[in-house]
Design a protein that fits this description.
Length: 552
């Protein structure tokens, strides 16, 4: 990082900060968190607290902590009770409550949802899924026609609709891009959206997507998510009712769609990549029925405040975030415990809150501990707090987010990824804090995943607040733990198997919590709040309403 450390105006305070970092680097004193006061007192960030909270939140009693479900409410009360026990002040909707209510609307697909082709009826989930957007109950029918990618384009030159009128038809199509078009250029041109708009304008009755065989996520994984209950914030606009139903189907279903056409599914896919493609009538009709059950309710962010010690700086705050929600109880009573994602992050945050609350002398700035709901469905809880803050948004110094994939439990943490570090002066604080603790900083090892945009810190970034998400990993080759993480993503990520495991190494989460506390302490005690780098595309005033640059 080509950044200069922002030193405090007070040499005494700066020397105290160096002492803290040296102590954190010492194996003998790694469990002690220093307060940064002139006469620092040792306060432990307790590994036992991380373990206790993680186990409690991932337990059967919490029923997967579903947003707008009883288990989620139980988890929110558990966190609020913990905040109260630590002496944190309530910072919810009113001065006596830790809860900030967030209103949601829920959509659940009903058993009547079906796809019938010819005389065969397909099952929701194993055979097909409804893809967003979904405006409400829908019924559509029409003759099936395969239109490849649905492109009408001069570059590359192709007309996938040549000689066919798609009005009133159910079109079967491949989600792009074609093999001779790069993913980047396809995304930059927003080609898929343009094609969808064109087909809707042409009056298609419905759209059925088939796999191009190159997707990162197979049908079984996608249908698992698409058939779960869907949540949105209650204040979000409904989709227009004139939109046709959009379905995605398994390869086995796709083969059956082509069974009467004289062309197999695979032959049609090959033809779609060649020059001079012509639409193919599948010589069957389809009937699509979408039936929904909609309801409204609420869930809570849980917010606690540790007031700062400086008469002026206590009006500014460092905000910790960790989402406490998981996928709750789903179809067939499947429970999603969400242990690594993200009971573990909440455990780390509460352990940090405990350490600071028991400190003899508090940090100069205030600290806010924000356990958010609705993250799994679209960062809803954090975005709601950023839009309706219970603290003046322009006086939020920084956000530190604890959310991950459980990589910190693979062994003692020796490697750190700081998402967002390259955008603000938080990067230099991270670098120096990690170096003093003997930790290695590496850049995002999977930039194609766009993780910077996919967790709660991004709600703060959009409001002009420097933010950092910390991911911890073991020593050794990055490729080794990345491979383990990828395997976990395939088998356990957002699944009922995301549970607390006997082989977890709890020293790793402890190190992540210590590092988060050290960074927060630096931010809390320096004279100036963290600032954006001039080179950052997110460089904007705190509390701004300006839209950030789009995700790459």
């Amino acid at each position: 990082m080509n950044m200069t450390m922002k030193l405090s105006d007070s040499p005494r305070r700066f020397l105290a900060a160096l002492l803290i970092l040296a102590l954190l680097a010492s194996p003998a004193l790694a469990q002690n968190l220093q307060t940064g006061a002139a006469a620092p007192a040792s306060v432990p960030v307790k590994l036992e607290t991380i373990r206790e909270v993680t186990a409690a939140l991932a337990s059967e009693e919490m029923q997967g902590r579903g947003t707008m479900q009883p288990g989620g409410e139980k988890a929110a009360r558990y966190i609020a009770d913990y905040f109260s026990k630590l002496g944190l002040k309530p910072l919810g909707d009113d001065k006596n409550s830790y809860f900030q209510s967030v209103k949601f609307k829920e959509t659940v697909y009903q058993p009547e949802t079906s796809l019938k082709v010819g005389e065969e009826t397909f099952k929701l989930g194993p055979d097909f899924a409804v893809a967003p957007p979904v405006s409400g109950d829908e019924s559509a029918s029409g003759d099936l026609v395969f239109i490849a990618y649905g492109m009408v384009s001069s570059v590359p030159k192709r007309d996938d609709l040549a000689g066919v009128n798609v009005m009133g038809k159910v079109v079967v199509m491949i989600q792009g891009p074609p093999q001779n078009v790069s993913e980047d250029s396809w995304k930059k041109a927003q080609a898929q959206i343009e094609i969808m708009v064109s087909l809707v304008k042409r009056g298609v009755a419905g759209i059925i997507y088939v796999s191009n065989g190159r997707e990162e996520h197979p049908y079984a994984e996608m249908s698992d998510y698409l058939t779960r209950r869907q949540l949105e914030r209650a204040d979000e606009d409904e989709w227009p009712e004139f939109l046709p139903p959009f379905l995605t189907v398994s390869d086995q279903t796709a083969e059956k769609l082509f069974s009467a056409s004289g062309t197999t599914f695979r032959q049609a896919m090959t033809a779609a990549e060649g020059e001079g493609f012509k639409p193919i009538s599948l010589k069957k009709s389809a009937k699509i029925t979408v039936r929904l059950k909609k309801s409204k309710g609420a869930a809570s962010n849980v917010v606690g405040l540790l007031e700062g010690s400086d008469p002026k700086l206590k009006d500014e705050a460092v905000v910790f975030t960790a989402h406490y929600d998981a996928y709750g109880v789903g179809a067939n009573n499947r429970v999603y415990p969400g242990a690594a994602d993200n009971a573990l992050g909440v455990g780390e945050m509460i352990a940090i809150a405990e350490a600071f609350s028991k400190s003899a002398q508090r940090p100069r700035r205030s600290m806010i501990f924000l356990a958010v709901t609705g993250e799994e469905y679209g960062l809803y809880g954090s975005e709601y707090w950023a839009e309706h803050p219970t603290w003046k948004i322009k006086q939020v110094a920084a956000n530190i987010n604890l959310d991950g994939m459980g990589t910190e439990v693979y062994g003692p943490v020796k490697t750190i990824v700081g998402y967002g570090a390259e955008h603000s002066s938080l990067g230099s604080i991270l670098n120096e804090s990690a170096a003093a603790a003997g930790l290695k900083i590496i850049p995002d090892p999977r930039p194609d995943e766009n993780s910077f945009y996919r967790s709660d810190h991004y709600a703060f970034v959009k409001k002009g607040i420097p933010a950092l998400m910390i991911l911890g990993a073991p020593a050794g080759e990055t490729s080794a733990w990345i491979e383990r993480m990828k395997q976990w993503e395939k088998t356990d990520y957002h699944q009922p198997t995301d549970t607390v495991r006997a082989d977890w190494n709890w020293d790793g989460p402890h190190t992540v919590a210590l590092l988060g506390a050290a960074i927060a302490l630096r931010v809390a005690n320096e004279e100036k709040m963290p600032s954006w780098l001039q080179s950052s595309p997110f460089n904007r005033e705190r509390g701004t309403k300006e839209e950030p640059p789009p995700m790459p």
